Amino acid sequence: MDNAEFDSALVASAFSLAAERGWSAVSVAQAARDADLPLDRARRRFPARCVVLLRFGSQADQAALELATNEGSPRDRLFDMLMRRIDFLQRHRTGVLALLRHLPADPPLALALAAANLCSMGWMLEGAGIASRGPHGQLRRKALLAVWLWTLRAWQRDDSEDLSATMAALDLALLRAEQAETWLSGRQAAASPGPLPEAPFDEPPAPEPSGSPAG
Description:
By secondary structure, the chain is mainly α.
C-alpha cells in the first residue's frame, strides 16, 4: 500500500468513525485500528488529528482538479470543479455532516479549516484559468470561498439523489460572483451585482472541511 492509498484508507475510516460517534470521538489511532492499518505508520503520516482534515481537503481538491479542462467559460469550469468537490464530500456525507455540527464548539478548528479552504479556492481558480495571485486574486479567493460556503450550506440540507438544490445554489452564487467581478473590474456589466437572495435555510453556514471538509 503506497502513501496515497494509506492516507485514503485512514481518512475514510476517520469519517466513518465520525459518522458513528461524532467528530469529538475521532482519533487517528482508532481510525487506524478500524481500518487495520499499522499504528506506527499512522503516527508518522498523521501526527495530529487535524492532519486528517488537511488530507481530506487535499483529496477533495484533487478530485475537483482531476478532470479540469480549458473548455467552456471560466464560470462553467468553476461550476464543474466545485461540483466534483461536492461529489467527493458526498461519498463521506454522514461523517462530513458530523464534522460540520462539531465546528461551532471548536473555533480554532473552524478557523484552521477556513484558512485551508481559502487555499483550496486558489487552486479552483487556477484550475479554471483565473489568476489567484495579487490583490485582485485575493479578492477572488475570498469571493469563491463565499460561493463555496453558500453551496455547502445548500448541500447540508439537500437529500436529493441528483443534488439538484446544491447545483442550483452553486449556479446562483457563481452568477452573483461573476457580476461582482465584472463590476469591480470596471467593465460594463449588464446589471449591477446584487446580494444573494434570502438563505434557503435558517441555520448559519458552517465552514467547510478542507476538505472540506477543504484543504
